[in-house]
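PROTEIN DATA CARD
Card holder: Catalase
Chain length: 570
Origin: Tissierella creatinophila DSM 6911
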Amino acid sequence: MDENKYQHEKVANENPMDKNGLGNHLPSRNQTIGDIPEIKTATGAPVTDNQDTMTAGKRGPVALEDIWFLEKMAHFDREVIPERRMHAKGSGAFGTFRVIHDITKYTKASIFSEIGKETKMLARFSTVAGERGAADAERDIRGFALKFYTDEGNWDMVGNNTPVFFFRDPLKFIDLNHAIKRDPRTNMRSPNSNWDFWSSLPEALLQITIIMGDRGIPSSYRHMHGFSSHAYSFINKENERVWVKFHFRSQQGILNLTDQEAKKVVGMDRESHQRDLYEAIEKKIYPKWKMYVQIMTQEQADSMKNNPFDLTKMWLKKDFPLMPVGEFELNENPANYFAEIEQAAFNPAHTVPGISFSPDRMLQGRLFSYGDAQRYRLGVNHHQIPVNMSKGVENPHSFHRDGKMRVDGNLGSELHYEPNSYGNWEDNPKENLPKEKGGDVYRYDFRKDDSDYFTQPGLLFRAMTKDQQQVLFDNTARNMGDSTLQIKHRHIYHCYKADPEYGKGVAKSLNISIDDVDLNLPPSDSKENLKKANNLHPELNIPTKPVDPGREIHTNTEPYVLPEYDPWLL
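Structure generated from the sequence above:
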């Protein structure tokens, strides 16, 4: 046999997911049966025949009297609930968080009250843009949502696998959704719409640089870091506030897929990340993450040139070093995916005493939108679904009453108003938050306050190796597809502002001469100037041919690295 042909076939049959080290797949067989296998109706009556419908004669029509067929079909027609508008495709598992360092000087939250304290938790990982049936191995942000069942109530940390986001104002969130989802005419995703939106927002460059880099497609959910991204606040026993960002560092290290590997994985297994997480836990290869926090005082926040609550920027680790807090391990797969993962409702508004919010505009928007979305998807009483219940609280006493699917006794005959003469429904003024700095309520143009969206992408670019920079150039070129020349020039300009070599590299991979790009667009220091810059060259509004630079450079293997030595964490 020809040796070159053998090597070619060997490479062709390799599975890029083998790098995750799980070995052979587990069998798909499910032999789980109920305690009493006989079928019964929803009201407990026996089902006499699940093979044949009742008919009027051997060959006649189905009878309306066949109540089992009616019940079975009616329930089936309603099995599917609305999928999440974003983060629809996801995987999850249960585990335990354990405190390993004392941070009680910063927060009174009971979950952190003593070293060694353990708290049960749930994690859900997801892609963002794809629908519930999309492939796992797509270039996209990953959701990183954690639910801690603390003894003071559920704390939901709803983050991503990137420390920043595309924009800083929640009014743009709906536009992002519409830009990256399906085009209303073609019902397909449009690179032009995607990149038109991204490149129209200079503040998106740092997020774009991360997602187009070699960490843009994790090889599994186990091999990626997590971030709160937002700033939150800690409140201590003296009612003093500091600002905080959370980091969750994968103890498995970082492993990623190249564009070419991901294309192969999608063709082989659209459930690659679901399979990896499930099989790792079944094989008792339990994934772990360490929790760190960055702390910022109010005085430090006041002295910062940039807005510290801007979601498009990191807090530099040299100024705000990462402090270890604890670690969590995922060690239990859900017994039923729909009940425990699809119905899991995460909401950043779910906090506990000692953990609160910040003036981050995006966080403020999410405090409403997440709970509102869950009430739509799951109903107003979704907190009664077991996976969402406050399992750690000894005596939950929720004021809410009635509503569809109330199943917990509805507080019985307990009086339901406050104030009253009987001492029921007492509030907890001791848990009031310290006062925040405020100001006049107005629609402030944040660009006039801070329009530097190029320094941090430049820092990240210069922290990359030459190979990582080339991967960034090539991934960007492939991903931009047939975007118009206007959009490609606009993005090259933004990259050039971050670092001239960044702009030149992207231009070269796109087969565009940097000399043809207008590098003197108006500064994006106001809404007016941003609009002017984005529309200065209508003559370039012509589709282009997709570009594939034809290179595959592997930069995707990295053992666990301490955060202070991670060049991707600024």
